[in-house]
Amino acid sequence: MLATEFAPLAGLIGGILIGLSAAVLMAFNGRVAGASGIFGGLFTLNWGYEFRWRLVFVIGMLAGAAWSGLLFFDSSAMAFSGNLPTIAAAGLLVGAGTCLGSGCTSGHGICGLARLSKRSLAATCTFMAVAIVTVFVTRHMSGV
Amino acid sequence: MGRFAIFVSGLLFGSGLAISGMVNPMKVLNFLDPAGAWDPTLIFVMAGGLIVTLLGYRLAFARSRPFAADVFSLPQSRTIDAKLIGGSALFGLGWGLSGLCPGPAIAGLVFGRIESVAFVAAMAAGYVATRMIAASTPRVAAEG
């Protein structure tokens, strides 16, 4: 476990940008800015509009992170927890879970809650609670 | 205009995730660990994102249709079922094990870490496999 610095201002500015992203995508394209659904929609053999808008969004995401990494985010501070097999297993769970649960932190936690969706509230409470319990168990009960 | 708006939305999303530090999995794990090295930054990200999305969606829905699309494509399901809760729980488990959820994991790819690549590849596999299984199982395919 590695301490990270509490940065409320950077968090708030980043959050506002994420909110603007969701607002722009809804106002112009009528779509929910949910990362898991956008990502999952890339894996198709039909490269029509549904594929292409998602690809453009993901290219924008990568460009946004890249330029922010040059100016505002020190990527050398990025620290992962666990070995590669654990990280890959977590990726499998996140892929399967967001597919079954129809959304992730952005789709349910931001866009869904902003639409006052009870489904998204239930989903957000569930994944938050399970994640907190998981971290408690791995960090405080297994002697790691 | 539509494609440009999608790119800008992606750009804002990726920038927000990097500037807020959410692309750093240790920062997210520390948020999920109130009993340990707690870093509450994520609350500010969620709060900023939610407030702006709430206001932005109000403005967007004040119009009868999006600027660059025919309709608002919104999730129609209203049922809180085992699929939603179970999927969200699996997602929460993977999120708690790794500190990675889909948006930050994808945006973080630009920083070139092998862990990011492993996670995103596994996430794609988990998502696609689950979608294929769901499509071949009528009982869980109801929601699409």
Could you list some keywords that capture this structure?
heterodimer, A: 144 residues, globular, B: mainly alpha
Structure write-up:
The complex is a heterodimer of chains A (144) and B (144). Chain A is mainly α and 144 residues long. Chain A has six helices and no strands. Chain A has helices at residues 8-29, 35-40, 49-71, 84-100, 107-114, 118-141. In chain A, helix 5 packs antiparallel against helix 6 (118-141). Chain A starts with 7 loop residues before the first helix and ends with a helix. The mean pLDDT of chain A is 96. Chain B has one domain (2-141). Chain B is built from seven helices and no strands. The longest helix of chain B is centred in the C-terminal third of the chain and has 22 residues, at 114-135.
SS class of chain A: mainly alpha
* Number of β-strand runs of chain B: 0
Overall, the morphology of chain B is globular
- Which geometry of chain A do the CA atoms define? globular
Biggest beta sheet attributes of chain B: none
Low-confidence residue ranges of chain A: none
Radius of gyration of chain B: 18 Å
Helix count from the secondary structure assignment of chain A: 6
Strand-residue proportion of chain B: under 5%
User: End-to-end distance of chain B, in Å?
Assistant: 30 Å
Compressed to H and E, one letter per element, the order of chain B equals HHHHHHH
Strand tally of chain A is 0
Helix content of chain A: 55-70%
Oligomerization state:
heterodimer
